[in-house]
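Quick sanity check, Flippase-like domain-containing protein:
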Amino acid sequence: MTGTSLSTALPASRRLRDTLLMAGLLVLVVVGLAGLAAASGWDHTMAQLSRLGLIQGAALLGLSLINYLLRALRWHAFGRQIGLPPGLWRDIRHYLGGFLMIATPGRLGELVRVRWIRRETGLPLERSAPLFVMDRAADLVAMALILCLALALSAGHIAGAIPVAVLALAAAAVATNGRLMAALVTRGYRILGRWPRLFGRLRGMARTLGRFADARLLVVSILLGGLGWMAEGFAFHQLLIWLGADIGLWKAIGIFVFATLAGGLTGAPGGLGGAEAAMIALLALEGLPLETSVAATAVIRVTTLWFAIGIGALVFPLAERMSKRTVNAVENR
């Protein structure tokens, strides 16, 4: 599949629909947060936000950047496993550029990385697409393990955390089981009895998952992802301290990871709506005033989700331009 054919898999109407959906959800989230802020008193919420300055903001963004770079290194490690030629900067560029597409249903827009890989390395779709699956699965495993650790080390409990952690681990286990996925694809083809070419490619992707069955790679990927998400969880803990609401390191990390997982499992673009609602509710259960919960949720989402999208917006044009340059160089030989 060429870069052109991959891009046509997501026609303009689909991209427009996803954009409008994301914009609509964003408006609802902003209106919801604004309503909660108004209910608690705008002056109280603004007073909480005034506790933060440039240094605090830079620290929060820096911790988020650590997360993104560690996960980009994981993407690089996965790429080498399936035979991508050496290119650390190329892989980091692809990974960060794909963040522009985070806020698409199921984050499927991040498959744009596959197009860039195809253009720059010639690796076929069947070999490169499983990178997307492994990246999402590695995040689920790392976050589920962090959540379990937070539950073990924090006082009290987080309602619904155990089922969410189990669901995340189960989803990761199923998605990365090459034999199981191949069997499901075969079963689907037998039921439908059509689109043999599509199902053939899906079987090829499922077989590629077996390349990741390396214990050292899996340990390294979980470690990189775990450290990355821990950095953002620590940022949330620091944010609460700055807002005068220290609930403990592991409880803060647990709430952040649980809310992020819960939002993602809803399938909404970027977890919009679900993550914010879960975070505010859990902070309220810890006895935090509504103005503090709203302020903390708004700030951490801006410095994580929207910061990632901002980085993606900066890197995406560069990744697109360099991938096209590679294609043009090959065609002009």
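Posting the structure with no commentary besides this: Residues 53-328 form one domain.
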